[in-house]
Amino acid sequence: MSKPLQAIRGMNDILPEQTPLWRYFEGTVARLLDNYGYRQIRMPIVEFTELFKRSIGEVTDIVEKEMYTFDDRNGDSLTLRPEGTAACVRAVLEHGITGGGQVQKLWYVGPMFRHERPQKGRYRQFHQIGLEVFNLEGPDIDAELIVMTWRLWGELGLRDAVKLELNSLGTSESRGRYREALVEFLSAHVDKLDEDSQRRMKTNPLRVLDTKNPETQAILVDAPKMADYLDDESRAHFEGLKARLDAVGIPYVINPKLVRGLDYYSKTVFEWVTDKLGAQGTVCAGGRYDGLVEQMGGKPTPGVGFAMGIERLVLMLEALDKVPEELSRQVDVYLCAFGEAAELAALSLSERIRDQLPNLRLQINAGAGSFKSQFKKADKSGALYALILGDDELAQQVVGFKPLRGQGEQQSIAWDALAAHLATCVVQG
């Protein structure tokens, strides 16, 4: 026998039982971003490999170890996108929509791909909602991004489960001075560093600050602090951001070891972290990347953005019992019809009801069946109410109306009054 076909490890199916929560989360975010004036952009999931090497950095873990890269039939090196910012920058440059200082406030949603060790909340195909803003350089837009996420956590009921961490990486010049001081410090302790940190010290020393090795973390307690090397402009920008967060009342923690894993960040970096999924994990993160557009061939263009992991936030909603009760019900009303004449009338009646109540989730029975079998399907659907249409109801132009999830007797409702009755009952139900 041939081996059963299975999904690739770390690339998971999202089943019909799971998609209502995904749609709820994505819809909540989309409405929030619409309300703040952001517009959606959709980019391809495959890009030229050079795009990510130039933007993310060739000595990052993503480019060195994690990207899905292959040669296509033309011999071009292509990569499944590991993150969205580089692709978004490529798109705005290609189509010239940030030229002349045009402000662009964009967002996107979709799958990303990294060859990591699969674990709960971290997969090889994972999904992100990302947001990018171009041609705004002040701390006010940095604050807006954080305020939006704070509002989102409130709408989802997650504010008590997340913590905001902030840092500033300064300009490339001040970061260069800090890098020299950090390398000097690390060199004095090189024999005590873990193997990965020894490698990073030579290629990307700021990433050593992000180590999870406890012995290296202990050494870093005495390491130079980025804040001591900030230029005046970056310091003023960071103070402006903190002042705005204080004004709104958003709590935060300054984390001097927060550097993010991508080379393009400058000035503001931030992460929303949680300990509700086991070990502390990041659910949303981002920062400012004022030099990235120029680095990719465009004119100097300020940029800032963030991305949030959908899998982890869906897990949090489930773990904290923040899933809206109505998501467990996919059908509001189930229409049972008995006999060919009743089936024809049921089809016409159901479409009239949909015209009058476009948000009503109405399922009409398909495949005929006995009274018992249709009611069994109605109950299994999770519907609040069953509608019954047979020869007697057809003759009187009424439907039987039977509650399935609570008290109440079956009653007859005239066809002309059915929409109004359903509107009242489903809202109350």
Automatic annotation (TrEMBL):
<feature type="binding site">
    <location>
        <begin position="83"/>
        <end position="85"/>
    </location>
    <ligand>
        <name>L-histidine</name>
    </ligand>
</feature>
<dbReference type="InterPro" id="IPR004516">
    <property type="entry name" value="HisRS/HisZ"/>
</dbReference>
<protein>
    <recommendedName>
        <fullName>Histidine--tRNA ligase</fullName>
        <ecNumber>6.1.1.21</ecNumber>
    </recommendedName>
</protein>
<dbReference type="GO" id="GO:0005737">
    <property type="term" value="C:cytoplasm"/>
</dbReference>
<dbReference type="GO" id="GO:0004821">
    <property type="term" value="F:histidine-tRNA ligase activity"/>
</dbReference>
<feature type="domain" description="Aminoacyl-transfer RNA synthetases class-II family profile">
    <location>
        <begin position="1"/>
        <end position="358"/>
    </location>
</feature>
<dbReference type="GO" id="GO:0005524">
    <property type="term" value="F:ATP binding"/>
</dbReference>
<dbReference type="InterPro" id="IPR004154">
    <property type="entry name" value="Anticodon-bd"/>
</dbReference>
<comment type="similarity">
    <text>Belongs to the class-II aminoacyl-tRNA synthetase family.</text>
</comment>
<keyword id="KW-0067">ATP-binding</keyword>
<dbReference type="InterPro" id="IPR045864">
    <property type="entry name" value="aa-tRNA-synth_II/BPL/LPL"/>
</dbReference>
<dbReference type="InterPro" id="IPR041715">
    <property type="entry name" value="HisRS-like_core"/>
</dbReference>
<dbReference type="GO" id="GO:0006427">
    <property type="term" value="P:histidyl-tRNA aminoacylation"/>
</dbReference>
<dbReference type="InterPro" id="IPR015807">
    <property type="entry name" value="His-tRNA-ligase"/>
</dbReference>
<comment type="subunit">
    <text>Homodimer.</text>
</comment>
<dbReference type="Pfam" id="PF03129">
    <property type="entry name" value="HGTP_anticodon"/>
</dbReference>
<keyword id="KW-0547">Nucleotide-binding</keyword>
<keyword id="KW-0963">Cytoplasm</keyword>
<feature type="binding site">
    <location>
        <position position="132"/>
    </location>
    <ligand>
        <name>L-histidine</name>
    </ligand>
</feature>
<keyword id="KW-0648">Protein biosynthesis</keyword>
<feature type="binding site">
    <location>
        <position position="260"/>
    </location>
    <ligand>
        <name>L-histidine</name>
    </ligand>
</feature>
<keyword id="KW-0436">Ligase</keyword>
<keyword id="KW-0030">Aminoacyl-tRNA synthetase</keyword>
<dbReference type="InterPro" id="IPR036621">
    <property type="entry name" value="Anticodon-bd_dom_sf"/>
</dbReference>
<feature type="binding site">
    <location>
        <position position="128"/>
    </location>
    <ligand>
        <name>L-histidine</name>
    </ligand>
</feature>
<dbReference type="Pfam" id="PF13393">
    <property type="entry name" value="tRNA-synt_His"/>
</dbReference>
<feature type="binding site">
    <location>
        <begin position="264"/>
        <end position="265"/>
    </location>
    <ligand>
        <name>L-histidine</name>
    </ligand>
</feature>
<dbReference type="InterPro" id="IPR006195">
    <property type="entry name" value="aa-tRNA-synth_II"/>
</dbReference>
<feature type="binding site">
    <location>
        <position position="114"/>
    </location>
    <ligand>
        <name>L-histidine</name>
    </ligand>
</feature>
<dbReference type="InterPro" id="IPR033656">
    <property type="entry name" value="HisRS_anticodon"/>
</dbReference>
